[in-house]
């Protein structure tokens, strides 16, 4: 072979510390005969390049006479000279000296690390996705480690939890309620600490055990005490931030009952899970059943089956029959909605009638389930056809008078806000600070009792058609601070221990004409619709009205749709709106219509604006729609605008305070803060909502001020000329009467009605409806109006409540709102004034049907007679005279025929 073929490739000399180390190594001895050289070429080859090597020469050949030191030494020499310990692209290039890239080890692939890693991840020597996929050994190791750790945690948790002690469970403390000034009102709520008695399984009737098993946990006697699906569902709901669900087995419910910490957290659920497992494994089923029934809350402050038996049926638990047991088992689903006495203070929908329906249906279902499960025979089930009505609630003596209503209202507040659950309140230990002012609560109660003592005398003195008209008379009231919505006083009824329903909350009594200010707010904010533009219109295309807009005030006025066509009721009949007491005024301004509480103008105005806008205005002011108060029944009901809904006195006082507060709405509230174990767990935050433009609100306040000065509310005038604004309300068939009013410092609502609200059932157990009763003749009055007893109570209370406070003035409107609109009456064409001395009085065309009441002279002054020097007509915007213009003559006849009466419609007030 030629000499130039044996010449080594010319490569740059190695450099750096690695090269220095290699330079100091001993020469490699020659390999034995037949061995390959360290560079990979056959022994004796004149070239140091392996055959087929793509990387070029690996290194110089071993010098002659150099001893061979083995394969390891050869590999080390090759690595030292050929690279593989430097990053790719380093000195020597790929595969060359210093290379650590893919061409390391002479260009035949990645080199192994110098020191093996304990965990080979990401995996060495793998490319692409295999580089990141763990080996089966790694997966196995991780799984074994995880399950080993889990078993360890489970073992420790199981060993450290203890089985509940039923004698220590459900220990209660009192809840302490405070007046607004910080003084203590009452300490209560821990009744269960004494209204509770542990009894053995032998004293718990078999019927009670069967009822709860069939209703709550059919597999109780055979299961392990834990429902995995229920636990998973609870954790899942908590993770989503949704409503949590309790354990679905009786064992889990028993464990939950014994836990003082009722916070819905992962740690508590985790502990309860292991306690339930341990209870299921170590306790007898009969002991679990006894523990569950001894610690369950049945409502009315009763913890345990013995207390429940005494509270609801007045007997010991052992004497309960299977039918009574089914009623008590139904309570375990939630006494708020299954106590037949009702719990409207907790939820307005939990009325006595609704709860009795819920309870009777579940009672029947539980008995049927017992038959289905083989725990009761069909013959025995056939004996229980009548619902066993529990006894009426017996109230704690310290809750008598108004205190019980105040406590219920505060409890309702913290439960509805999600601060506490009913069970947590029952366990006690909370300090609840309220907004109630003791002096005002006492003043409101005294004002009601004054009217009751003077006029309402049950027993036959005021009788109409053989009916005692003073029986079942009830009052309710609420007083709200307009600046922040604090409820400063309520009157819930005669006595909380005798009359359970809080009359300051929703009662079902329609509000009548006290709803009219919301119609005005809608008309001044949105305006009436243009007949040419269709039903749905933007505010820009509407015409906003002013208090001096004109409408027909005729009695039995035919109501027209916004487009001028007759409005028809659900029976296809045109609607003729009557006024209260038959008042008949052909044309009136809205200001006058509000003063006299005429219905026809406001029904027509509501149609022109749209009852949906009226509804929106009522909600913006602070009313809240519920399934009970008919505030959502605004579609296809023209009488909605005159108060067919039945919001509470609290909400009406709050909504009127929005006008008082210049259009800014604050939700009524009764609790300022809640403290538990020294920590404030709730603090009220003021959240104000702009409802109406301040000019609109102040304009309506001015109109309501006129109602008290010269309209239907004169009975409510406060002494010493203190400014006040308000509105009367009387409903159809005289079934309720209201007075709502305010001063700059306080807004108060008073309601009066007749109703026997005790729940009744017939012989078959069917719930009987308890309707509102008429008040013709009540208190010796031919008819009860809002300006009679309600206005008198309002005046007496406000006089006392505001005694010593300055006479603050209402803020005047900043300008005019809207325009003078001629609603369902035609704007007359002005006639030139005759100035000749011999002019005779103009002749008017008489009405073919005379009005049903004498003509009314506006209270602003007499109608001018003769020829005035300057006279202003409503259609003359340039005239500034304060002289009241004459009322234009109406020559139209009253529509004939009998009007179709709207059964829900109030008649004024």
UniProtKB/TrEMBL annotation:
Arranged from A to Z, the UniProt key words for this protein are: Carboxypeptidase, Cell shape, Cell wall biogenesis/degradation, Glycosyltransferase, Hydrolase, Membrane, Multifunctional enzyme, Peptidoglycan synthesis, Protease, Transferase, Transmembrane, Transmembrane helix
Basic and acidic residues bias (residue ranges): 531-545
Q: Where is the composition biased (Gly residues)?
A: 80-109
Q: Does the keyword Transit peptide apply?
A: no
Extract the InterPro entries matched here: Beta-lactam/transpept-like (IPR012338), Glyco_trans_51 (IPR001264), Glycosyltr_51/Transpeptidase (IPR050396), Lysozyme-like_dom_sf (IPR023346), PBP_transglycosylase (IPR036950), PCN-bd_Tpept (IPR001460)
Ranges for the region named Disordered are 1-119, 531-552, 712-732, 825-909
Q: Which Pfam families match?
A: Transgly (PF00912), Transpeptidase (PF00905)
Penicillin-binding protein transpeptidase domain: which residues?
556-771
- Which GO terms fall under molecular function for this chain's record? penicillin binding; peptidoglycan glycosyltransferase activity; serine-type D-Ala-D-Ala carboxypeptidase activity
Its family? In the N-terminal section; belongs to the glycosyltransferase 51 family. In the C-terminal section; belongs to the transpeptidase family.
State the protein's name.
Answer: Membrane carboxypeptidase (Penicillin-binding protein)
Source organism of this protein record: Actinacidiphila rubida
Lineage from the top down?
Bacteria, Bacillati, Actinomycetota, Actinomycetes, Kitasatosporales
């Amino acid at each position: 072979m030629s000499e130039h073929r044996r010449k080594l490739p010319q490569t740059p000399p190695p450099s750096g510390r690695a090269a220095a180390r290699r330079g100091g190594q001993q020469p490699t001895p020659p390999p034995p005969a037949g061995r390959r050289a360290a560079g990979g070429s056959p022994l004796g080859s004149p070239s140091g390049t392996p055959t087929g090597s793509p990387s070029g020469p690996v290194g110089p050949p071993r010098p002659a006479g150099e001893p061979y030191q083995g394969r390891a030494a050869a590999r080390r020499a090759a690595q030292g000279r050929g690279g593989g310990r430097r990053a790719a692209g380093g000195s020597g290039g790929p595969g060359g000296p210093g290379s650590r890239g893919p061409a390391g080890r002479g260009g035949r692939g990645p080199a192994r690390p110098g020191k093996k890693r304990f965990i080979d991840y990401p995996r060495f020597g793998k490319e692409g996705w295999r580089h990141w996929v763990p080996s089966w050994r790694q997966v196995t190791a991780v799984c074994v480690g995880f399950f080993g750790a889990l078993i360890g945690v489970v073992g420790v948790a199981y060993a450290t939890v203890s089985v509940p002690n039923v004698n220590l469970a459900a220990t209660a403390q009192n809840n302490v309620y405070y007046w607004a000034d910080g003084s203590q009102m009452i300490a209560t709520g821990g009744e269960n600490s004494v209204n509770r008695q542990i009894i053995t399984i032998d004293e718990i009737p078999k019927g009670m055990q069967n009822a709860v098993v069939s209703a709550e946990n059919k597999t109780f006697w055979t299961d392990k005490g834990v429902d995995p699906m229920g636990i998973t569902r609870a954790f899942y709901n908590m993770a989503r931030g949704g409503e949590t669900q309790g354990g679905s087995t009786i064992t889990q419910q028993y464990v939950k009952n014994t836990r003082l910490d009722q916070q819905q957290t992962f740690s508590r659920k985790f502990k309860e899970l292991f306690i339930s497992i341990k209870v299921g494994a170590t306790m007898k089923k009969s002991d679990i059943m006894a523990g569950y029934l001894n610690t369950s809350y049945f409502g009315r402050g009763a913890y345990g089956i013995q207390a429940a038996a005494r509270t609801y049926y007045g007997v010991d638990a052992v004497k309960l029959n299977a039918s009574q047991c089914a009623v008590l088992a139904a309570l375990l689903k939630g006494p708020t909605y299954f106590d037949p006495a009702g719990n409207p203070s907790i939820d307005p929908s939990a009325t006595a009638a609704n709860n009795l329906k819920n309870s009777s249906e579940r009672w029947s279902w539980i008995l049927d389930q017992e038959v289905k499960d083989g725990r009761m025979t069909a013959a025995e089930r056939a004996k229980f056809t009548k619902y066993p009505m529990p006894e009426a609630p017996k109230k704690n003596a310290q809750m008598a008078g108004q205190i019980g209503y105040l406590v219920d209202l505060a409890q309702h507040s913290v439960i509805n806000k999600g601060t506490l659950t009913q069970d947590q309140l029952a366990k006690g230990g909370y300090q609840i600070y309220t907004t109630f002012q003791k002096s005002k609560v006492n003043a409101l109660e005294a004002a009601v009792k004054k009217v009751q003592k003077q006029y309402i005398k049950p027993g036959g003195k005021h009788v109409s058609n053989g009916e005692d008209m003073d029986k079942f008379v009830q009052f309710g009231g609420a007083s709200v601070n307009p600046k922040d919505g604090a409820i400063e006083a309520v009157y819930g009824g005669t006595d909380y221990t005798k009359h359970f329903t809080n009359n300051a909350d929703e009662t079902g009594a329609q509000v009548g004409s006290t709803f009219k200010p919301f119609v005005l707010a809608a008309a001044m904010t949105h305006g009436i619709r243009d007949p040419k533009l269709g039903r749905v219109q933007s505010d820009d295309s509407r015409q906003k009205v002013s208090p001096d807009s004109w409408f027909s005030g005729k009695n039995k006025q035919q109501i027209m749709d916004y487009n001028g066509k007759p409005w028809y009721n659900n029976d296809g009949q045109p609607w003729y709106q009557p006024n209260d007491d038959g008042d008949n005024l052909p044309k009136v301004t809205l200001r006058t219509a509000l003063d006299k509480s005429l219905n026809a103008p406001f029904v027509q105005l509501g149609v022109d604006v749209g009852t949906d806008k009226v509804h929106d205005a009522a909600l913006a002011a602070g009313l809240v729609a519920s399934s009970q108060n008919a505030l959502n029944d605004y579609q296809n009901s023209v009488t909605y605008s005159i108060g067919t809904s039945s919001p509470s006195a609290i909400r009406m006082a709050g909504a009127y305070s929005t006008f008082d507060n210049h259009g800014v709405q604050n939700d009524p509230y009764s609790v300022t803060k809640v403290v538990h174990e020294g920590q404030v767990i709730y603090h009220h935050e003021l959240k104000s909502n702009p409802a109406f433009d301040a000019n609109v609100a102040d304009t309506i306040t001015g109109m309501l001020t006129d109602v008290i000065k010269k309209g239907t509310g004169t009975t409510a005038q406060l002494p010493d000329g203190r400014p006040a604004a308000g509105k009367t309300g009387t409903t159809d068939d005289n079934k309720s009467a209201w007075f709502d009013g305010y001063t700059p410092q306080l807004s108060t609502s008073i309601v009066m009605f007749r109703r026997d609200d005790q729940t009744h059932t017939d012989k078959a157990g069917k719930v009987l409806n308890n309707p509102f009763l008429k008040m013709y003749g009540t208190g010796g009055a031919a008819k009860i109006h809002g300006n009679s007893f309600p206005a008198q109570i309002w005046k007496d209370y406000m006089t006392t409540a505001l005694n010593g406070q300055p006479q603050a003035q209402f803020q005047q409107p900043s300008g005019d709102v809207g325009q003078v609109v001629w609603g369902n009456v035609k704007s007359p064409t002005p006639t030139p004034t005759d100035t000749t001395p011999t002019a005779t009085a103009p002749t008017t065309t008489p009405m073919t049907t005379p009005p049903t009441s004498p003509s009314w002279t506006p209270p602003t002054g007499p109608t001018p007679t003769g020829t005035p020097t300057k006279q202003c007509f409503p259609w003359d915007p340039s005239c500034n005279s304060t002289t009241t213009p004459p009322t234009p003559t109406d020559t139209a006849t009253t529509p004939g025929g009998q009007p179709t009466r709207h059964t829900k419609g109030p008649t004024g007030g």
